[in-house]
Amino acid sequence: MMVFSCYYPNPGSVGTGPQDLAKVPTATAFMAEVLMTMVLLLAIMALIDESNPQAPKSNLAPLVIGLTVSAMVMPGGPLTMAALNPARDFGPRLFGYLAGWGRIASPGPRGHEWWVYVLAPSVGGLLGGAIYSGPVQRCFPKFTVGRAT
Asked: Is 127 exposed, middle or buried (0-12, 13-18, 19+ CB in 10 A)?
């Protein structure tokens, strides 16, 4: 089931025993998912915002977004398998449950994994959006008909 859904820590790298599951507490997994999703949203918004004078003017935004996802997966993969998106985990988890994986698919071996991968990326996305549209975007120069003010 770990091919489809996310678990913390990554069972492929640390194992599935009780002592292995204790290596990453729920709070750590939650904060890791929040922070990774927040950074990803900040990067996406900075790259596609036309009012950002530092945004790439060519078609490089998709490449940089892909590199940002890669940068988030490298530390997040072993820790939480880096869902970064509620649909990336919830859909496969629901399918796994209906396909016969039962309790391993949902709620998960700990009995509560599913909510971490739904709530944490949602919180991270909201924080990333709020930070970008608040303090970050206010730092950009205001443009009026051909000149910065």
From this structure: middle
Q: Map 56-96 to HEC letters.
A: CCCCCHHHHHHHHHHHHHHHHHHHHCCCCCHHHHHHHHHHH
The pLDDT of residue 149 is above 60: no
Report the 10 Å Cβ neighbour count for 24. Answer: 18
- Asked if 107 and 28 touch (Cβ cutoff 8 Å), the reply is no
Selection from 115, 121, 112 nearest residue 21 by Cα = 112
Sequence ranges of the domains in the chain: 11-141
Residue 131 tokens, joined: 């930070």
Is CATH 3.30.310.50 correct for 11-141?
no
Encoded tokens for 123: 């919180």
Burial of 65 per CB tally in 10 Å (0-12, 13-18, 19+): middle
- What mean pLDDT is predicted for residues 66-84? 93
pLDDT in tens, 132-142: 999 988 887 77
- Both structure tokens of 36: 């990774």
